[in-house]
Backbone:
């Protein structure tokens, strides 16, 4: 994984964030922290939200500009 934010634990420590490194996550659908190799379980065992559809989000703007 190409991850510029490699030392996640050092960043968590610097900001006083509590974490625990494990061999296996207990949640069904772990989420990857953006631009890292770190996987986390969300509170309440929630699934991560799907990535937004950029084309759908841009459609009203493009329409208003007469580009669509």
Residues:
């Amino acid at each position: 994984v190409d991850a510029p934010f490699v030392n996640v634990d050092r960043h968590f420590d610097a900001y006083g964030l509590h974490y625990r490194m494990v061999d296996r996550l207990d949640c069904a659908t772990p989420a990857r922290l953006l631009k890292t190799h770190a996987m986390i379980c969300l509170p309440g065992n929630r699934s991560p939200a799907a990535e937004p559809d950029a084309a759908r989000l841009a459609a009203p703007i493009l329409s208003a500009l007469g580009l669509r």
Summary: The helical segments are 8-14, 54-64. The longest helix spans residues 54-64. Residues 31 and 49 are 9 Å apart (CA to CA). The mean pLDDT is 80.
